[in-house]
Amino acid sequence: MMDYLVTGGAGYIGGHFVDTVAKKSDVAVIDDFSTGHYVCKYARIIKADLRNMVPKIGNVRVLMHFAANPDVKGSMHDIKSHYERDVTATLNALELARKSDAETIVFASSSTVYGYAKKVPTPEESPFAPVSGYGLFKAMGENLVSYYSMSYGIRSISLRFANIIGGRTGHGIIYNYAKWIKEGKPLEVWGDGNQKKSYVYVHDLIDAIHISIKEAGKGYSVFNVGNKDQTRVNEIIEIFEDVAGKRFRIKRKDSQEGDVRNFLLDSTKLRKLGWKPKYNSSEAVRQAVIEILKDA
Ligand SMILES: NC(=O)c1ccc[n+]([C@@H]2O[C@H](COP(=O)([O-])OP(=O)(O)OC[C@H]3O[C@@H](n4cnc5c(N)ncnc54)[C@H](O)[C@@H]3O)[C@@H](O)[C@H]2O)c1
After folding, report:
1. Is the CB of residue 205 below 6 angstroms from any atom belonging to ligand 1?
2. How many whole angstroms from 81 Cα to the centroid of ligand 1?
3. Chain segment 214-230, per-residue pLDDT in tens
């Protein structure tokens, strides 16, 4: 039996997960290489597009579903193609899990399912109120996962990630700022730059994934994965300037639809299972900036 079948395993987070298991277990990756291009030499790589049903490869212990289009802003304008990558692909991944007799399914969900949450820090019991197509599709994905768990008795875990940074990141604020610095462009700030969010270093996220696979109970479980502190956009710019030792030009833009200005997840449930992130949010930003400027 295969240990892990990882959809989106050529992507940023999926690739980091694969790196932690591929040397010591039997791992296969399914990816269409639309945004991810990482190839772990210890894993079996299957090029396939999950918008179509993928034939069974063999029986699987854990199916990890990372494949998606993670572009939140893009999902506001091109809703149909995002639906296919985020919802149709999730249904096809779940069908594959069912046909492969998977014991456990792990779904990469997101804090965006909460939208402008009334309660901050936001616990898992808070209602779905997404304000982007992306958040809506993650909520729909979770409902699909929960349905498969209940109907077919597959132990399943939805993990609602905060913003994940560090390592080979290929999108998000840290990536964009490093890219604009390299291109000599000003750093774009949406609104006043005081929006505050929580960031998690990618290796801390991978630890959270392993802990949830090991410690979650039977049936369907949901965990938030976030730090306890928040980092403002203006502070991220200060960290870039501090690490680079120079000032950068700023270009102010209007606030963007779908951009949640204040988010903080309550991750008590996961911490009770033993998750202890090495970096808090601002430390994670600093570490990610150090790494990305070194590579630039
Ligand atoms: N990065 C974050 O901060 C963050 C936060 C919350 C949730 N997530 C979720 O975590 C998961 C991984 O995100 P990431 O940041 O690594 O993104 P990523 O774009 O690097 O990885 C996604 C991978 O899925 C693949 N893919 C996309 N559509 C596919 C399809 N139809 N068939 C097969 N492969 C397909 C891409 O080629 C890519 O390798 C996604 O589900 C994302 O929504 C990410």
Report:
1. no
2. 14
3. 999 999 999 999 999 99
For ligand 1, atom 43, which residue shows the shortest CA distance? 70
Q: What spacing in Å lies between the alpha carbon of 200 and ligand 1's midpoint?
A: 16
Q: Which two tokens stand for residue 201?
A: 């270093």
Q: Whose CA is nearest to atom 26 of ligand 1?
A: 67
pLDDT at 59: 97
**Distances 71 to 86, 165, 172, 276 between C-alpha atoms, Å:** 11, 15, 8, 28
Measured distance CA(91)–CA(84) in Å, rounded:
10
Q: Identify the CATH homologous superfamily for domain 167-197+228-295.
A: UDP-galactose 4-epimerase, domain 1 (3.90.25.10)
Pairing of strands 196-197, 231-232: antiparallel
Tell whether ligand 1 has an atom less than 6 A from the beta carbon of residue 225.
Answer: no
Work out the burial of residue 228: count CB atoms within 10 Å of its CB; fewer than 13 is exposed, 13-18 middle, 19 or more buried: middle
Distance between Cα 262 and ligand 1 center (Å): 23
Task: Name the CATH topology of 2-164+200-225.
Answer: Rossmann fold (3.40.50)
The pLDDT score that the predictor gives to residue 225 is 98
Would the pTM of this model clear 0.90, i.e. be above it? yes
Using an 8 Å Cβ cutoff, are 81 and 64 in contact? no
122 Ramachandran zone, left/alpha/beta (phi>0; psi -120 to 50): beta
Q: Which residue's entry shows tokens 């090495």?
A: 278
Q: What does the pLDDT look like over 66-110, one tens digit per residue?
A: 999 998 888 888 999 999 999 999 999 999 999 999 999 999 999
- d(C-alpha 1, C-alpha 6), whole Å: 14
SS3 (DSSP) at 265: strand
User: Would you say how long the chain is, in residues?
Assistant: 296
